[in-house]
Amino acid sequence: xxxxxxxxxxxxxxxxxxxxxxxxxxxxxxxxxxxxxxxxxxxxxxxxxxxxxxxxxxxxxxxxxxxxxxxxxxxxxxxxxxxxxxxxxxxxxxxxxxxxxxxxxxxxxxxxxxxxxxxxxxxxx
Length: 125
What we know:
125 residues; six-stranded antiparallel β-sheet
């Protein structure tokens, strides 16, 4: 997913605020499902929730930059998936994170539905 950096994404120095990298990754995860006509979060209390994030800020983005978020599947279990998401400015990796997502129904972990598993499988590793 491509993301352009706008003024609202930056601090007073024109550098992307650190929390926005997490937002960009969240948007990219949702976009994977939207592109296939699937709502990633069904009813109000159904969907993936973040269990753990390990982030590494290795560079920075500035106003006007065009970034690309890449998402890869590292591990899939019955009710959770582990993804690696990286953000690049051109060929330079400026951010990476591993995120553990758990599929929940009414706040309890549940087996990931087959329709969602097919989308997840397309991420490869």
